[in-house]
Amino acid sequence: SDGSIRLHQMTSEYPLMQWNDSTNGQPIIALQWALTRPAVFFVLDASSTIYIWDLLENDLLPVAKQIIPSEKIVTMALLGEPEKKNGLLGIALAKESGEIDIQYVKKKWALP
């Protein structure tokens, strides 16, 4: 609820990494690992901003941030086929109106 993210290992109750206030205090609505690239995850906050984290590029801050200005995004889901090496990775965004918007991610965050 405060925008903090914690990365845990299943064998420990203590986080391996913790990023406080990673969304400028906005509650996190959804967080999902990339299906095609293990070190990348996506975060959606309550202000309809998507943050892309690539832990191999920068483990302190997100590598990209995209504000979705048109309408409130209520959830997201990632689309991709990890067994294929084509690097296609998409984000399905569910809007408050019920519309679904699908956007594709740049290959540098999608390729295995």
TrEMBL record:
Cellular compartments per GO CC: cilium; cytoplasmic dynein complex
Lineage, opening ranks: Eukaryota, Metazoa, Chordata, Craniata, Vertebrata
Organism, as annotated: Galbula dea
GO molecular function, one term: dynein light chain binding
Name of the protein this chain belongs to: WDR60 protein
Domain of life, source organism: Eukaryota
Gene Ontology biological process: intraciliary transport
